[in-house]
């Protein structure tokens, strides 16, 4: 059986085959879209939006989605409503759910849901080549999907890199390029957080020692320091790390001037990681760094 991994994006989570990767995304926490592909074809699509309050007409949601599919498929579409019992049982808790199946040049099992707790309307579907559908796989994936967590955290997990941040932080920008993943978050309190993963860390370390990375990071960010850069030795999950702090000239996205951070190398996967923030509660940098996972 294929290995599974937890996907996380904008509060949406699901357990999927680990070979499926984020192929496209747009929007924000309020409304957006994300898809995963297996390197050849899209295999999972998720759309979400916030309802305007009260009960949501899922029948209307599905009718509109069916019309958009029919247009995209140029009328070559079979769209069936499934019996309520088809959807995974865990999808029903505190949710209205409307399962469906469609077939065109591809086949998909999915459902639309409205969570009475967080107010999200979600359309999720698992796609297959025609005549290769695997309802048990679709059921397993959709049964693992959640649209929010109750612990005040948001999981972000793509490309073998996972971490969680307080749900009060919204994604401002994600730069996901080969060799480097970079996430910038902001909170309503004008705090910010920057989380990065660098591939081929051994090659970078040959050029710039770990102790010098904090200096290089501020240079890459084009940030001017107003005070000394204080650095101390630390450990993250058994790896040697450098903890650093300084005062910077606030401006642009730097709405707070006192910055703390951690940088460390995981030699067994040849990756380097960075967590830095300003304006958050004491210990936030360490908390996020301790929760970083990779595979």
Task: Give a count of the beta strands, DSSP E runs of length 2 or more.
Answer: 19
User: With helices defined by DSSP (H or I, 4 residues minimum), what is the helix count?
Assistant: 5
The H-level CATH homologous superfamily of the largest domain, spelled out, is Mog1/PsbP, alpha/beta/alpha sandwich
Shape: elongated
The structural domain count equals 2
Instruction: Name the strands of the widest sheet in spatial order.
Output: 3-4-5-9-8-7-6
Structural class: alpha+beta
| CATH domain class of the largest domain | Alpha Beta
Oligomeric status: single chain
| Strand and helix order | EEEEEHEEEEHEEEEEHHEEEEHE
Q: Unreliable runs, pLDDT <50, ≥5 residues?
A: none
Main β-sheet: number of strands, strand sense, barrel status? 7 strands, antiparallel
Q: Ends: how far apart?
A: 17 Å
